[in-house]
Specification:
12 strands, ATP-binding cassette domain-containing protein, disordered N terminus, eight-stranded mixed β-sheet, ATP hydrolysis activity, about 30% helix, alpha/beta, four-stranded antiparallel β-sheet, ABC_Ni/Peptide_Import, binds adenosine-5'-triphosphate
Length: about 350
């Protein structure tokens, strides 16, 4: 595994909370999240739907509507504070320092604009490539993301391309200005399995060229095992565990991490022994962030479910952080392992 030195910190998120206006009040979707990304590092954020993964990512990109949401804490990207930046200040960072690849390229691309123009538009917002170089850069980018016949594709509309090709275009747009940080939110979920591996390889390829940091958001722990250096596990808006990928897969600690790992089907799994995590992620209004919220949905852990836990995760071994104390006693009722 490559070693990444500490002075290479690219993104430093500290006590980041994002709340959304729901009904008459603001409810936290993520609460006091601390996460760092170094140059050259692939950080995976995993957790079920509703854990807050995308909310964290879109906070870094400044994509939340300031009228409907509030962000507190600090997000420093390449030495610059993002929290509090709006409008033009934020557009300068978005696409320049950080580029985002979305799950659904068809929704993220403009259906009425040719591919080449969409890439050009991203370059026009920033001054990384002067205008006279932009047409060449479009072709170079489409080539780099493995699109055959780039001159032709530059003149096509999104609906004329396959899902895999559209995702390649999204990646070309995300990296058009050589961002230091690439955020990929479920980049392969909508694609065929055969295309998934190619797209992941492509993300790693563009990351290596620039020694960029990558935040990969995914449900797919198989993908995480393959490409992540570090894994952050999120549940109900909080981090519950963080460690190197190797450590997390070999020594998972938090009951939620162990439950997620146990619920991955393998070649030997039959439908009878596939583990199903009981219950579901709570609604925002029910999230009491001073608790270890996962315990509330584990019937046999109710004795600890209402216990207030330390806000910060504890370092249980070097660079391995876990929330609460329940991991010390947690077992599956059938004695199963994860
Ligand atoms: N704009 C919004 N307004 C209100 N609530 C929101 C908004 N965006 C997200 N939420 C809520 O915040 C919580 C976290 O959502 P988020 O999409 O970040 O989770 P996620 O872990 O990324 O899930 P998924 O994998 O489904 O994308 C959810 O309860 C969601 O309903």
């Amino acid at each position: 595994m490559k070693s990444i030195s500490d002075d290479q910190t690219l993104l430093k998120a500290k006590e980041v909370s994002v709340s959304f206006r729901i009904g008459g009040e603001f409810l936290d979707a993520i609460y006091h999240v601390d996460l760092d990304v170094k140059r050259g590092e692939v950080l995976a954020i995993v957790g079920e739907s509703g854990s807050g993964k995308s909310t964290f990512a879109t906070a870094i990109m400044g994509l939340h509507n300031p009228k409907q949401s509030r962000i507190t804490g600090s997000i420093v990207l390449d030495g610059e504070e993002i929290v509090g930046k709006v409008g033009d200040q934020m557009s300068k960072i978005r696409g320049n320092k950080a580029g985002m690849i979305f799950q659904d390229p068809l929704a993220a691309l403009n259906p009425l604009m040719k591919i080449g123009l969409q890439i050009k538009e991203m370059m026009a917002v920033h001054d990384v490539y002067p205008e006279k170089e932009q047409n060449d850069r479009i072709i170079q980018l489409l080539n780099q993301v493995g699109i055959p016949n780039p001159e032709r594709v530059a003149n096509q509309f999104p609906h004329e391309l396959s899902g895999g090709m559209r995702q390649r275009v999204m990646i070309a747009i995300a990296i058009a200005n050589d961002p230091d940080l690439i955020i990929a939110d479920e980049p392969t979920t909508a694609l065929d399995v055969t295309i998934q591996a190619q797209i992941l390889d492509l993300i790693l390829d563009v990351q290596k060229r620039k020694n960029a940091g990558v935040i990969l958001i995914t449900h797919d722990l198989g993908v995480v095992a393959e490409i992540a250096d570090t894994v952050a596990v999120m549940y109900a808006g909080q981090l519950v565990e963080k460690a190197s990928a190797q450590e997390l897969f070999t020594h998972p600690k938090h009951p939620y991490t162990r439950s997620l790992l146990r619920s991955i089907p393998s070649a030997e799994t039959t439908s009878d022994d596939l583990y199903v995590i009981p219950g579901r992620v709570p609604a925002l209004i029910d999230m009491e962030h001073d608790k270890d919220l996962f315990l509330q949905r584990v019937p046999w852990m109710q004795n600890l479910a209402d216990k207030v836990v330390a806000e910060k995760m504890a370092e249980v071994s070097p660079d391995h952080f876990v929330r609460g104390e329940a991991w010390k006693t947690f077992e599956f009722p059938d004695g199963g392992e994860a």
